[in-house]
Design goal:
Layout (H helix, E strand, L loop, with lengths): L1 H36 L1 H12 E7 L5 E2 L5 E13 L7 H12 L3 H8 L6 E7 L1 H14 L4 E10 L7 H4 L11 H5 L1 H4 L3 E7 L22 E4 L3 H18 L3 E7 L6 E7 L12 H4 L2 H4 L9 H10 L8 E4 L2 E4 L2 E4 L7 E4 H7 L2 H22 L26 H8 L8 H12 L3 E3 L4 E5 L5 E4 L4 E4 L3 H16 L14 E10 L6 E14 L6 E8 L7 H19 L33 E3 L8 H10 L3 E5 L3 E5 L6 E3 L3 E7 L2
Parallel strand pairs: 2-7, 22-25
Antiparallel strand pairs: 1-6, 2-3, 3-4, 3-5, 7-15, 8-9, 8-20, 10-13, 11-12, 14-17, 15-16, 18-19, 19-20, 21-24, 23-25
Helix pairs in contact: 3-4, 3-5, 9-18, 12-14, 12-17, 13-17, 14-15
Subcellular location: Membrane
Keywords: Membrane, Transmembrane, Transmembrane helix
InterPro entries: Beta-lactam/transpept (IPR050515), Beta-lactam/transpept-like (IPR012338), PASTA_dom (IPR005543), PBP_dimer (IPR005311), PBP_dimer_sf (IPR036138), PCN-bd_Tpept (IPR001460)
Amino acid sequence: MMEKNAVILQQRIASFLVLLLMMIIILAVRIGWLQFIDGDRMAAKVANQVKDSQILQTPRGTIYDREGRELAVSNLTKSLYADPSEIKDPDIIVSLLAPLLEMQPGDMKERLSAGGRFIWIKRMIEPGVTKQIEAIIKESNLRGLGFLEESKRYYPNDNLAAHVLGFVGTDDVGLDGMELALDKVIKGTSVEHFVDTDSRGIPIFKSIFTFAPPKQGKNVYLTLDSTIQFIVEQSLDKAMLTNRPQGATVIVMNPHTGEILAMANRPTYNPNQFYKYSMREWKNRAVAYNYEPGSTFKSVVAAAALQEGQLYPEERFIDNGYVEVSGRRIRNWSDESYGNVSFVEVIEKSINTIFVQIGMRLGAYKLIEYAKAFGFGKATGIELPGEEEGLLFRPEDMRDSDVATMSIGQSIAVTPLQLITAVSAIANDGVLLKPYIIKEVRNVDGSIEREGVTQSVRQAISPETANRLTGLMEKVVLEGGGKKASIKGYRFAGKTGTAEKLQDDGSGYSAGRYVASFVGFGPVEDPQVAILVVLDDPKGSYYGGEIAAPIAGEILGKIMRHLNIYPQIANEFPAPKENIQTSSMPLPNIQAPPGKVVVPNVVGKSIREAGDALTQAGLSIVPVGTGVAVRQSIMANTIVEAGTEINVYFEAR
């Protein structure tokens, strides 16, 4: 019996040892597998359990005007995220935060219930709202919520130069204007930053707040002058109320350099809230709008005829009130017959029938040749997205009626930028320049990486022809259709235009709908600015000389004073002595005597708010700087003459 038990015990021990050996072999094989075959994958898995990463975008570079005043800046702001796996009751979070975030409760709950470890709730939250949310999270002990800092784009002057600047999307992608055109330059760099996590994989996002972006994007200086831009936009707003056009554009350009000093359109938008506006409001009509130029194009026709010797300024013509070409009757815009007239009178009165005769002398090939020489039919190449090329005939396809209508600025299409560039060539001794809007691109250390320069495209006409034509165009402003653009003490040259508006499908003209315009430059003795005003489909009066010329005159007068270009005739009324107002405290109301106005207090207001307040009071504003008004040249509650100019000084918020 003893022997039998001993045998059984030995068998059991042997079985145990065999089993133990097998377990050791299996364990060794598993360890070897993990160590030598599956090691890399497991190591990465372990690393992922203690590390997470976020792609962070360094701040975009700042966009300035030519004087270094901020037009677009990037500031750090916070975005709210959630870890859905940590959230036990989404309804509580939704009820507390959805109203503050201006989110639909259903949308917010759907995000919180989606699962996963990380979701965005709302990006780029305003600082005031962030503080309220942080307080709620702390007071209600909400788990699974946190903030990340991101760079948000701000436009301190709201809609000032909106179509030039464009806007930036949530993920720091430029979507329009300079933000799109220079996205790769000013965007900076994307940086992958590793963030510590706990044993459950929950990010310890506080570690990211100590992260210092290594480098921001390059800074851009535009050729725009913020003061001129504001002058233009204020006049445009007034025109929209008075003339009620469907759209409007004003461009101001330096004809000797090609620099764009101002570019504005209506309708417009606020790039800080671009998502609230339509694509029609985003459109930069200055470069992306084709229209028939009407009589403003006659300056190009006159230039071609003078250059080719087909016309002499002393020449006289007979106008019968209409002319027939290929069975088509073309009348004067006034329906009048002017009889025996000199060419000076022809251009002053913008007589259609005589310009048809001049165009027929030139012929199709010469007309198209000079139109192209002045830059029509081809994009200018300015550094803005969406530029159109306009529309010209092929000369071999033109009938006599096409030559006739082109001679009065119809049946072709141009962009506002093309037209002001062409007329600037007349002001620049016949030399066509390439327009540009980027003055400098600077690196973070302040060194200049790229600099805008004046580029000559071609000599469109001779200096002698340009000077002769300038004299004729000055007559238009002094005595002709553009005299409402004249300013006492200054010499300006210009040309008005009134063109029938094409139907949207291009099948013909829309009855009773017109495009009114004025283009000009000055002072004639040394042109410093060229200006184009285009009003698309105004209500009521629609003649360029009646509604576009006065806008140009108002803008030019203010620009002359801003540039310290003094009139040849002294002002009849001296400006009041400057008495700086720096306090935003309200003052008691004062009643002004008849014919006088009381200066309001605009300290603490934005450019637009200050401009509106002074305009409503019957005064004129000359803004200096951008941001918030910190002082004004004439103290509030001072009684002054209506129309007095008030210098308002602005500084960044």
